[in-house]
Design goal:
With 356 residues, this protein is mainly beta. Helices cover 6% and strands 45% of the residues. The strands form 8 sheets. A 9-stranded antiparallel sheet has the order 11-12-13-14-30-24-23-18-21. A 6-stranded antiparallel sheet has the order 17-28-25-22-19-20. Strand 26 and strand 27 form a beta hairpin. The longest helix is centred in the last third of the chain and has 6 residues. The protein is globular and about 60 Å long.
Length: 356
């Protein structure tokens, strides 16, 4: 694989680059060492049309102001931390509250705002860095590696690994906004299939926060085990979780273990599909509810529900619940590992059963 590196600017006093990855003609990714951002992902269809399948910005400066977290690698802890903190090593860790009363995606100094070192790989690139408490707000020194690998099967694979010299909590993910129509229209007509029997409950009328409880999807609009139209789900404002989340913004516990299917997305407009596989416990699905005239790449304007995020991760806010903490805690001498694959194809094949 040939990797092309282009200087993009400076952030935090360090040089920022764009890296172009291509395993074969017709499928290529562009990533940055600022925030580990996936800036573009281009799929060439059999009729010659090329579509960029992720939302984003053209300039580094826009990513530095990235309130949407477009394409960013997220950590140490994805999603909301209640009241902006947790207890680690017997002491309270308090982060900036950047989402109402809570911390979102580890606050403004999370992985998404850091400039990373990099290593070239035979099939991609890895972003590596050691972070101190002064840099990201979490105790100790956290050694982190995030790899992007691209294959000839039109698959983008992300690999996460980390270790720390003291107790910490980890739930890493990627916050790409997928639009299988090249970012040109909403995703409400997409079919979404989730291989999940339960979802994580939220509370509060505004700024919903995860309670630590898992509830069955059966009998709810979240029962997407046989697939459903996204627009039909988000229209169910009679269902409290949809109303308070202003759409889908929920974590689903994927059945099974190991590397397995989490979600399947299909656009009838482009006839493109996305299969998300991961070894993570579940996936946070976000239907782009907060997008409202966001100016993006190439003069595009992204409206509400213009994308679907598939954030494979561990149970949100778990570190604040005694019965969930073990799933996110990392002790000295232990290693954190997780992987996620996004596979793209033309057509809508027979229903995928989600088990290997």
């Amino acid at each position: 694989m040939q990797i092309q590196k282009t200087f993009w600017g400076e952030a935090n006093g360090r040089a920022v680059y764009l890296f172009d990855l291509q395993a074969q003609p017709g499928f290529r990714a562009r990533v940055s060492n600022f925030g580990g951002v996936l800036q573009s992902l281009v799929f060439e269809k059999s009729d010659g049309e090329s579509l960029d399948l992720v939302l984003g910005y053209d300039t580094l400066e826009k990513y530095r102001q990235n309130a949407t977290f477009f394409g960013a690698c997220i950590g140490p802890i994805a999603d909301r931390l209640a009241e902006g903190g947790c207890v680690l090593n017997g002491a309270r860790v308090q982060l900036a509250r950047n989402a109402g009363p809570d911390s979102m995606h580890s606050g403004p100094t999370g992985f998404h705002s850091q400039v990373w070192d990099w290593e070239e790989l035979p099939d991609g690139i890895a972003f590596v860095q050691s972070f101190t408490q002064a840099q990201i707000g979490f105790p100790g020194t956290l050694r982190t590696r995030i790899a992007y690998r691209i294959s000839s099967e039109r698959t983008l694979r992300l690999e996460y690994s980390a270790s720390c010299d003291c107790e910490t909590a980890l739930s890493m993910t990627n916050h790409s906004y997928f639009n299988l129509d090249g970012g040109r229209r909403h995703c409400r007509d997409y079919t979404l299939t989730l291989f999940a029997d339960a979802y994580a409950e939220t509370t509060r009328e505004t700024e919903p926060i995860f309670t630590g409880r898992a509830l069955p999807v059966e009998g709810t609009p979240f029962d997407l085990r046989k697939g459903g139209r996204i627009g039909d789900v988000i229209a169910r404002r009679d269902f409290h979780e949809i109303l308070t989340g202003n759409g889908i913004d929920h974590f689903f516990l994927t059945r099974g273990s190991g590397m397995r299917a989490h979600a399947y997305l299909y656009s009838p407009t482009s006839n493109l599909s996305l299969l998300c596989r991961s070894d993570a416990p579940g996936v946070l699905v976000y239907s782009g509810n907060g997008l409202d005239g966001e100016a993006g790449k190439g003069g595009a304007v992204y409206g509400r529900n213009y994308a679907v995020c598939l954030e494979t991760e561990r149970f949100p806010n778990a570190v604040n619940f005694e019965n969930r903490r073990a799933g996110v805690l990392l002790q000295p001498g232990e290693s954190y590992h997780s992987a996620t694959e996004f596979n793209f194809a033309e057509g809508f094949p027979a229903p995928y059963q989600g088990q290997d």
